[in-house]
Design goal:
By secondary structure, the chain is mainly β. The chain contains no helices and ten strands. The protein is elongated and about 50 Å long.
């Protein structure tokens, strides 16, 4: 695969109409995300949904996040600001504030120090009116 990136994808179905794609995406053998895509089929309008993207430092040196950006203002990312040492784990959170009814397809772009390659974390789902 390109630039030393390995991707293995396994679909995992969890309860309550939430699906998660499990993957390992490694940039220069430094970081491994447990999954790159999460979906939530049913959210009420106005609901704040939190999507968790756990990761581990699988390399032999520390790294930190240079850039973490979302594709819109309705998805706010939160991430560790300190260096992640080898063997340590953490998570990037995506907090989605659903104000519009309909399908969602949003991304969080992640860049590590010393790399120009981006990891794209994705959330998908549907927002429904309250009954």
């Amino acid at each position: 695969m390109q630039l030393g990136t390995r991707i293995f994808i396994v679909l995992l179905i969890t309860g309550l109409s939430q699906r998660t794609v499990i993957a390992q995406d490694t940039i220069q053998n430094r970081i491994a995300f447990d999954y790159l895509l999460q979906t939530k089929d049913s959210m009420d309008v106005g609901e704040k949904a939190i999507f968790h993207f756990p990761f581990s430092n699988v390399g032999d040196t520390a790294f930190y996040f240079m850039k973490v950006r979302s594709s819109c203002g309705c998805l706010v990312p939160e991430w560790p600001r300190e260096a992640i040492e080898p063997g340590e784990s953490g998570e990037i959170k995506g907090i989605y504030d659903s104000r519009r009814i309909g399908p969602i397809n949003k991304t969080i772009s992640v860049e590590l120090n010393g790399s120009e390659e981006m990891i794209i974390l994705r959330i998908k789902g549907s927002v429904w009116p309250k009954e």
